[in-house]
Design brief:
By secondary structure, the chain is of the alpha/beta class. It contains 9 helices and 16 strands. The strands form 3 sheets. Strands 1, 4, 5, 6, 7, 8, 15 and 16 form an 8-stranded mixed beta sheet that branches. The chain has a 6-stranded parallel beta sheet with strand order 11-10-9-12-13-14, sandwiched between helices. Strands 2-3 form a two-stranded antiparallel sheet. The two termini are 33 Å apart.
Length: 340
């Protein structure tokens, strides 16, 4: 039988959390005292130190998510912190630094906008780092999505050319830095010409202004077309993205920043002959612990850059973080850090 191991200090009976009782505006994000979640066998209870704030959580708050989301709900699809309690045979020990993300977190069960969260052990990534929580808190969902898209989705290799459409998004910025680590040449898009320097600072070789018609611009840079394209804008841009890719190149559909999750009147003949289309919507397991460790080391050594827009202190600032995301004035990551 698996016995739990817990932190030395007694876990309190209650905690502070952000609870959405019903969909609505920013005032639907209510800071409340609620019971600390009980841990089920096979799950891990984590004391949350920091979490990223994401567009999908804004969608949850507004009631625009799919039927998986029920209310009342503590949102938060990602978080970092330390193990509070885990099964003895889980390989996790109390006080150990861990990250978690996705897998229904903050949607079908309560998420990381809280002092404690419980998640299945299979979606917990242990790590060791001296980096501050505000940096580590920006990483889990952003890195998992970017890394999974480049590896599982595109199988990107050194020497290849990658187009990132939606390049100033958090995933787009992360994907650029990771692609450069892999050894790829990166073309990345922005709708604002003034943000070209921001892309170059993240390692992008060729910033390109996206006016909805990219194929000719990309072909000016790579006449035969790019080897791989990461689509983050959505299905409205997908037909044009196809035109940027070489024969036997691959397009990976990962996001829809502009909306448009489906193509009306889709026919396979919309895909150019020889161009491959795939998608990515992975989970925590797509970011192995050893890969996450290498990325943390690269950050510590200054070889990998983390696009953090703003750090917020305490659950009471979650409303501010979501308001800033909705304003659209900054594209990098918004991170909330919790005090002990």
């Amino acid at each position: 039988m698996s016995h739990p191991t817990a932190a030395d200090g007694a876990t309190p009976a209650t905690m502070r959390a952000i609870v959405i009782t019903h969909p609505g505006g920013l005032d639907a994000l209510e800071a409340k005292d609620v019971p600390v979640p009980a841990r089920k066998p096979g799950w891990v209870r984590i004391k949350v130190k920091a979490f990223g704030v994401n567009e999908s959580e804004v969608t949850t708050r507004k009631g625009e998510s799919d039927a998986e989301v029920t209310y009342p709900r503590v949102p938060g699809i990602e978080g970092v912190g330390v193990v509070d309690e885990a099964d003895e045979d889980s390989g996790l020990r109390p006080g150990q630094q861990v990250a978690t993300m996705m897998g229904g977190m903050g949607r079908s069960y309560d998420g990381a906008y809280a002092q404690y969260v419980t998640v299945p052990a299979g979606q917990v990534i242990p790590f060791e780092t001296g980096l501050p929580w505000d940096v580590v808190g920006a990483l889990p969902e952003m890195f998992q999505t970017a890394y999974g898209s480049l590896t599982r989705g595109l199988d990107l290799k050194a020497g290849q050319t990658l187009l990132i459409r939606g390049g100033t998004s958090t995933v787009g910025l992360s994907a650029a830095t990771m692609a450069k680590e892999i050894g790829a040449t990166v073309i990345s898009t922005t709708r604002n010409a003034e943000r070209g320097d921001e892309l170059r600072a993240m390692g992008v070789d060729h910033p390109v202004v996206d006016d909805g018609h990219l194929a000719e611009k990309v072909r000016d840079l790579v006449p035969k077309g790019v080897d791989a394209a990461l689509e983050l804008v959505g299905c409205t841009a997908l037909p044009d993205t196809f035109g940027c890719v070489r024969v036997h190149g691959t397009v990976c559909f990962t996001g829809a920043l502009a909306g448009g999750w489906s193509l009306p009147d889709f026919t396979p003949f919309m895909i150019p002959s020889g161009v491959r289309l795939t998608s990515y919507a992975g989970e925590a397991a797509d970011l192995p612990a050893d890969v996450f460790a290498r990325q943390l080391q690269a950050i510590a050594e200054g070889r990998l850059k983390v696009p953090v827009a703003k750090v917020y202190r305490g659950l009471e600032q979650v409303r501010d973080a979501q308001a800033d995301i909705e304003s659209g004035t900054t594209s990098a990551k918004h991170v909330v850090v919790l005090d002990d």
